[in-house]
Specification:
The chain is about 5% helix and about 30% strand. By secondary structure, it is mainly β. The termini are far apart.
Length: about 725
């Protein structure tokens, strides 16, 4: 009974559910009449519903998705919101005429409009835009007829009159060469495409040797199409020449054609050019960049010693041969970026010799040989990749490249420390290959070069161009390691001739600085005086030690003071290259001096010793022992009249040897030994001895193999004047 009741309840529930379902709207049938149920009549909204493509009316019945009148939009002709212009797009708003739905579309850019009249200057013609934009069309160089009028635009050349020409060839082959400036007074030269000579109007095809050489008035020159060769020294030493416009017909620029044109600025070489001969632009010190056309086969010494040249580019093309660039950029000390042609096979001898700002270069994979001196004295070269096809590296190719890391992709057996293969690895910090080793070098963005050996980092160089630097307290290596401790190699700043100050932050773990001079962290050791530092250097009193290269090539220093805590000056090479030092001050603590230290200060004229020094003294700029009994050192540049004080007994072994600036010398009667005496004191005109002739004859003097060496090389004096007469100086 219970089961029958339960069945009846379930049947009622199912019937009720079906009734509800069949009375709902069927969205696919606007007027469904489900069996067993009452039919539903759709009521559609009067408002339109729409999306990007269509519109429709929806049924307002609950749970009904039925629609009616669904159709695609019918667009009007649109309304411009933002007008389009030449070169700029606009917007147009469109509205459906049925439902009112709107859309916005981009209107295409308009076409630029150009003047029908030609615009022109002395070299080119073009049509200017009339739509307000800075544009031109149909730009091109003038095409000249025999009247020097452009056959395209009608421009009449304003050429320089009065120049002299020479004629060559006959008949249809007759042509002219510009011989000299003649009577022309223009400073802005315009060479004509055609000129008259002997009643004939002939084409100008060349510029003769020395045509304008050493002319200091010319500031610019326009060379017309038709000229094919500029001969030797044509504009040599035109020191005020700033601008040159080359023709599209030019084939060759000969030897020294523009050499020493020191004001000449960047120019465009034509694609027709085939060769730039020896020294064609040598010492053009205002050039900063140059692009070598793709057909050029000879660039031999062309840009040697162009001191401001920073960028050089050859087309990245395989349509040209391998140009000869022997000495092409030698001495270009500012050169920093070079792009070579893809199929270059030889880096010619001395091509980049003494390019002291060049830090790296990418050689084409086609290179097979690097010739002698190719990169010699590129002192800031730090990384170099040897392409896989290189089979030859000639002697001296990498001389004086001190901090080079080499990635060797070739089959050459390059080993760090060996002098083979052009010295590429003689001073290399590392050599690695695609299958062996890896880079140990990190160069920071501000130009500091570090290497890692074992687990220690060392700064090996600075390749930036700042005159004042601050050492990093830390840096991130190429592998992402943060490095806070490092040492500095003794020669790290030896190539930084313009560096005036080395500063160190307080949080640097290993070093400190004072007044732009580098010390160890404690300040006890002098590490490096910047090479470009000028004037006086005064060592702080807490400094006790000096690194051997601390003063290397500090040629702008005029005075060096060694502090009171220094006890020894024993490194004879300490002042190597300090050519400008005139005065050296010896502090109170120094008790031992290797006088060889003074020999490297070529301009030294004065040595001053602190009064409280217990071991040395100075009088009139000369160095003596404390008791002033022996002359220890006479500065090289001491000149004029020299008076040795009373009480001095010895001039030491060297005496006044080879000082050619002293004109007279007066020796006290206490002298008993003069050693080499006046050996090659070629400027001496008078020698006085403040004792008797007998005392003079008893003075000890150096003789070698029986010769009176002490008197050798005296040109202008023949006697020693004593208190009671004169003693003849023996002829040697």
């Amino acid at each position: 009974m219970k089961r029958k009741v339960l069945f009846m309840v379930l049947a009622v529930i199912i019937a009720f559910t079906c009734t509800i379902g069949f009375t709902a709207c069927n969205p696919d049938d606007p007027s469904p009449t489900p069996p067993g149920s009452q039919g539903h009549t759709h009521t559609f909204s009067e408002d339109w519903t729409s999306d990007e493509t269509s519109h429709w009316h929806v049924c307002t019945g609950e749970n009904c998705n039925a629609v009616s009148d669904k159709a695609a939009h019918e667009w009007d002709s649109g309304v411009v919101e933002i007008p389009s212009g030449c070169g700029t797009t606009g917007t147009v708003k469109y509205t459906c005429t049925v439902c009112g739905y709107q859309k916005t579309e981009t209107a295409p850019a308009g076409t630029h409009t150009f003047d029908t009249k030609w615009s022109f200057d002395e070299t080119s013609h073009w049509h200017d835009a009339t739509c307000g934009h800075d544009l031109v069309s149909e730009q091109g160089k003038h095409k000249w007829n025999e009247q020097n009028v452009c056959t395209v635009c009608g421009y009449e050349m304003q050429y320089t009159k009065g120049m002299e020409y020479s004629k060559s060839g006959k008949g249809d082959n007759a042509e002219l060469s510009v011989k000299s400036i003649g009577t022309a007074a223009d400073t802005e030269l315009v060479i004509p495409a055609y000129a008259e000579m002997d009643g004939e109007v002939l084409p100008v095809t060349t510029i003769d040797k020395n045509a304008f050489a050493k002319n200091q008035s010319i500031t610019s020159v326009v060379i017309p199409d038709g000229v094919t060769i500029i001969y030797d020294r044509a504009f040599n030493q035109c020191k005020n020449l700033v601008k040159v416009v080359f023709p599209d017909t030019l084939k060759e620029i000969k030897r020294e054609a523009f050499a020493y044109c020191e004001a000449l600025q960047n120019f465009e070489l034509p694609q027709s050019l085939l060769s730039l001969r020896t020294w064609s632009f040598m010492n053009c010190n205002s050039l900063t960049s140059v692009t070598i056309p793709s057909k050029v086969q000879y660039v031999t010494s062309a840009f040697a010693n162009c001191g401001s040249l920073k960028t050089v580019s050859f087309p990245k093309s395989d349509t040209i041969g391998s140009p000869d660039i022997s000495s092409a950029f030698e001495g270009c000390s500012a050169l920093q970026a070079v792009t070579l042609p893809d199929n270059m096979t030889i880096i010619s001898d001395s091509a980049f010799r003494r390019c002291e700002s060049l830090t790296s270069i990418e050689l084409p994979e086609a290179v097979t040989a690097i010739e002698s001196d190719a990169f010699a004295y590129c002192s800031r070269f730090v990384t170099f990749t040897v392409p896989e096809n290189v089979a030859t590296i000639e002697d001296g190719a990498f001389d004086e490249c001190f901090i080079l890391e080499v990635f060797n992709k070739s089959a050459l057996n390059i080993v760090a420390g060996e002098s083979s293969f052009g010295g590429i690895a003689a001073n290399a910090v590392n050599v690695y290959t695609p299958t062996s080793g890896s880079s140990i070098m990190t160069t920071t963005d501000n130009g500091f070069v570090f290497i890692k050996t074992s687990s220690k980092w060392s700064m090996v160089g600075y390749i930036g161009d700042e005159q004042e630097i601050t050492l990093p307290s830390s840096f991130t290596s190429g592998e992402g390691e943060t490095v806070t401790e490092y040492t500095i190699r003794s020669d790290a700043f030896d190539q930084c001739e313009d560096l005036k100050a080395i500063n160190v932050l307080q949080d640097n773990a290993g070093y400190s600085s004072q007044n732009g001079v580098l010390y160890d962290k404690s300040g006890f050791t002098l590490v490096r005086v910047p090479m470009g530092m000028e004037g006086k250097y005064v060592m702080p009193d807490n400094c006790r030690y000096i690194e051997s290269t601390a003063f290397y090539n500090c040629e702008k220093l005029t005075s060096v003071t060694f502090g009171n805590s220094i006890t020894e000056l024993d490194d004879a090479k300490c002042l190597t290259g300090c050519y400008g030092v005139e005065t050296i001050v010896i502090g109170s603590g120094i008790k031992e001096i290797n006088t060889g230290i003074f020999d490297n200060a070529d301009s030294l004229s004065e040595i001053i010793v602190a009064d409280d020094n217990k071991y040395y003294a100075s009088i009139d700029g000369l160095l003596y022992d404390k008791e002033v009994r022996e002359l220890i050192y006479l500065p090289w540049e001491k000149d004029g009249e020299l008076v040795i004080p009373d009480g001095v007994t010895s001039l030491g072994n060297l005496g006044l040897m080879e000082n050619n600036r002293i004109t007279s010398v007066s020796l006290p009667s206490s002298i008993t030994y003069i050693g080499y005496g006046f050996y090659y004191c070629t400027g001496l005109e008078k020698i006085e001895f403040r004792g008797t002739m007998a005392q003079w004859n008893a003075v000890g003097k150096t003789s070698v193999n029986g010769n009176h060496t002490w008197a050798e090389g005296l040109w202008y004096v023949s006697e020693v004047v004593c208190s009671d007469g004169s003693v003849e100086i023996p002829y040697v």
